[in-house]
């Protein structure tokens, strides 16, 4: 599995999530506390929004802790909205194209979880991607496939509904064990979902902080009591200083 962190609110330096906290995302790449895999060394990536309508993106195949460029960049880039990810592969190749976040026009997307038996159902899933979006396929991960499916399901007009429809499309193909926490953004709003169709949902936490919101796979510090855990089968929407929580595919949950 993977670890990720996102921010929306007043502009902050990327290092405030990536490297400064005691349990920063870079530290989680060495030793995650709430993940099935405690080492996340199969690449990393950051997508951030600034003056352009589309996000900047930096990805590589190195472990996050060993890339000096990442630490230097994080000390200088200031953004009101960004997504950052450290990867633990669930079977697909180690490559820059498979590193999260994925971007398409103004959208960015990152994912932690799995599509069980993906190698067996990959052809069927990819066959459901709209041709105009399949042309954007760069890597081989289930995560990127979910993102491209969501683009075809109308993510621009109905972000949570599009992601729910993707879950409903994929779940019958792979059976129990479909698990995900995903964060995605159009450059104005930040969305995050927590879902499982069995009893094990990847963790998702949120915290109000300095006129903004941190949304993470696991708390960034030891003060765990001030983080709110998002329940399985729910989604959150961060729009400026406002956060709302919504049911997400709750009817298809077996247990949470």
UniProtKB/TrEMBL annotation:
Keyword vocabulary terms for this entry: Glutamine amidotransferase, Transferase
GO MF entry, a single one: transferase activity
Regions annotated as coiled coil: none
Ranges for domain Glutamine amidotransferase type-2: 2-256
Signal peptide: none
UniProt key word Transferase: yes
InterPro entries documented for this protein: EgtC-like, Gamma-glu_amide_hydrolase, GATase_2_dom, Ntn_hydrolases_N
PANTHER family xrefs: GLUTAMINE AMIDOTRANSFERASE DUG3-RELATED
Protein name: Glutamine amidotransferase
């Amino acid at each position: 599995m993977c670890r990720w962190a996102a921010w929306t609110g007043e502009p902050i330096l990327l290092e405030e999530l990536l490297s400064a906290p005691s349990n920063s995302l870079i530290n989680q790449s060495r030793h995650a506390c709430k993940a099935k895999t405690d080492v996340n060394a199969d690449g990393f990536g950051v997508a951030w929004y600034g003056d352009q309508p589309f996000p900047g993106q930096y990805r590589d195949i190195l472990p996050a802790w060993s890339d000096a460029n990442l630490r230097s960049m994080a000390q200088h880039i200031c953004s009101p909205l960004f997504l950052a990810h450290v990867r633990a592969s669930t079977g697909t190749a180690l490559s820059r194209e498979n590193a999260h976040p994925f971007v398409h026009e103004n959208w960015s997307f990152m994912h932690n979880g799995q599509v069980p038996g993906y190698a067996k159902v990959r052809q069927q899933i990819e066959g459901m991607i709209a041709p105009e979006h399949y042309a954007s396929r760069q890597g081989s991960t289930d995560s990127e496939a979910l993102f491209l499916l969501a683009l075809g399901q109308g993510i621009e007009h109905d972000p949570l509904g599009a992601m729910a429809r993707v879950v409903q499309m994929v779940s019958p193909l792979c059976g129990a064990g479909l698990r995900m926490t995903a964060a995605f953004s159009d450059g104005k709003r930040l969305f995050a979902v927590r879902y499982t169709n069995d009893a094990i949902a990847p963790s998702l936490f949120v915290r109000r902080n300095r006129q903004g919101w941190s949304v993470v796979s696991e708390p960034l510090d030891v003060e765990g009591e001030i983080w709110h855990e998002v329940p399985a089968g729910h989604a959150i929407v961060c729009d400026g200083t406002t956060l709302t929580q919504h049911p997400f595919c709750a009817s298809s949950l077996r247990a949470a």
